[in-house]
Design brief:
Length: 173
């Protein structure tokens, strides 16, 4: 909302079309900015092609990776391995693919910004959240690395480490 309040047009991606559409409608009505939406599962195969199609003819000035998911609060071996792999695709593969796609554009322009939202869980291992904590650690290290790499081209990168936040996904866990 704060970006729209500053007059920035938005491209919003989300897995569920209902909440995505509601959010876009509210932003358009309140702030009179353009909002393009795309329902996209960031854990699905072919993410790189989908992202390329979305960003190909758009100038993305700021990327905010803030996808949330229920981490499952269970021992790794008590859940299917596919649940852990989905967490890795969401918190490792998706930020990497998105950063690569928009980072190339930003580097060419010599400006832009990337915010990768991680979690305090990524600072140390924790019982019942092994895959979640490990994937969030990847995000932190990716942001730290890109801070330098992208920064040499005038692109700012921030790794935002959030504490416990009352999101729908956290409440489900």
């Amino acid at each position: 909302m704060q970006l729209a309040a500053r007059g920035l047009d938005l491209l919003l991606l989300a897995r569920r079309s209902g909440p995505l559409g509601e959010t876009a409608k509210e932003i358009r009505e309140r702030f009179r900015v353009q909002v393009v939406t795309q329902t996209l599962d960031l854990t699905a195969p072919g993410l790189d092609s989908a992202v390329e199609a979305l960003t190909d003819n758009r100038e993305i000035g700021l990327l905010v990776c803030n996808a949330g998911a229920t981490h499952g609060a269970a021992m790794l071996l008590d859940r299917p391995v596919d649940a852990a792999l989905a967490m890795v695709r969401l918190n490792c593969v998706a930020p990497l693919v998105l950063s690569h796609a928009v980072g190339a554009q930003m580097r060419t322009r010599g400006r832009g910004g990337v915010i990768l939202v991680s979690s305090m869980a990524g600072l140390a291992g924790g019982a019942f959240i092994a895959a979640y904590a490990a994937s969030k650690a990847f995000e932190i290290v990716l942001a730290e690395s890109l801070w330098y790499e992208f920064g040499t081209a005038g692109v700012d990168v921030l790794g935002l480490i959030a504490g416990a936040t009352a999101t729908p996904a956290m409440l489900r866990s």
